[in-house]
Specification:
Its main location: cytoplasm. By secondary structure, the chain is of the alpha/beta class. The protein contains five helices and eight strands, in the order βαβαββββαβαβα. It is 39% helix and 20% strand. Strand 1, helix 1 and strand 2 (40-47) form a beta-alpha-beta unit. It starts with 5 loop residues before the first strand and ends with a helix.
């Protein structure tokens, strides 16, 4: 086992529309207080709800930190559970961002695949967290909503070959507090790291046999 610290980057979004305080960034700040244990170097970043900022920021996070995992967190006014998103979509970005911009191509990466799945088994993460008695309901979704959340997720999945995750949280108090959401993020990300470790060990074992 490699004892060097693993790096995880977690992002939340800034304010937009009626979300004057974005629950995702509050949740990420609560996660930062809790930390992910001594073995994990956790970096958090607030992402502005702007397509062009995402296009420059996401690659720079990968370049700067070489993280093992990047987790993006966003708020969804429709969500009532903490929702694990399975995939990012490339097309259909018509909604204007906070600076009134949307991509001419209406897509994330021109010529990229229509949809990219996370390399992390979200159903399994959901199952594990649900049985851990967290007190926060977790569910899985296949549609991150074709706005900045989905755009960020796809961009990150494209750059990381699937080593990204996206988590939607409900607005604060509907029903969870920022602290609840921070605890949920911690539990979820620890399970994700666990699964990544297991996948890597499997690959190493297979290499020994060839």
């Amino acid at each position: 086992m490699d004892n060097s610290k693993r790096t995880v980057v977690v992002t939340g979004f800034g304010p937009f529309g009626e979300h004057k305080v974005n629950a995702s960034w509050v949740a990420v700040q609560e996660l930062k207080k809790l930390g992910l244990g001594n073995e994990v170097d956790l970096h958090v970043h607030e992402v502005p709800v702007e397509y062009q900022k995402v296009q420059s920021l996401v690659p720079s996070l990968w370049k700067q930190y070489h993280p093992q995992l990047v987790v993006h967190v966003g708020v969804s006014g429709m969500a009532t559970t903490v929702t694990l998103e399975k995939c990012g979509k490339n097309h259909g970005y018509e909604g204007l961002d906070i600076s009134g911009f949307s991509p001419d191509s209406q897509c994330c990466i021109v010529g990229g695949p229509d949809c990219i799945d996370s390399g992390i088994d979200m159903e399994l993460v959901c199952k594990r967290v649900t049985t851990s008695g967290l007190g926060v309901t977790v569910s899985v979704s296949k549609d991150a909503g074709r706005y900045l959340c989905d755009f960020t997720y796809y961009t990150s999945l494209y750059l990381s070959h699937g080593r990204s995750a996206f988590i939607h949280v409900p607005p604060l108090g509907k029903p969870y507090s920022g602290e609840d959401l921070g605890r949920a993020l911690k539990a979820i990300i620890q399970e994700m790291l666990d699964l990544l470790d297991q996948a890597e060990e499997k690959i190493h074992c297979q290499q020994h046999f060839h």
